[in-house]
Write a structure and sequence with these properties.
The protein is an all-alpha fold. It has 4 helices and no strands. It has helices spanning 16-36, 51-73, 75-78, 82-105.
Amino acid sequence: MVQTDNSTSQPHQISLVTRVLVGAGIGLLLISLFLLSAGDPNPEWGKLWMIRPLIIVPLAGAMGGLCNYFIVHFHNYVGVNKAIAMIVSVIVFIIGLWLGIVLGLDGTMWN
């Protein structure tokens, strides 16, 4: 009986769920650090003002991870070099995360 190892025949790719979770984790970590350094909030914002950014920014990070997966996974179909696809996916992730932070903090810290 001969056992074959097929793990070296195909490169390991990071799954879609992993990229989405990593993107959401980065967003949650970034907005948590930003909110913890906020100090005393304005009384006009209400008691639960932190809930909106803590929901919206990780969602934006998750969508950035989703875009990262599709750009890197399908770069061969478009005919783009993998290095260029990675650079584009990082730029798209950063812009999406920045827009999520602006949307999450709109009306409170971002006025």
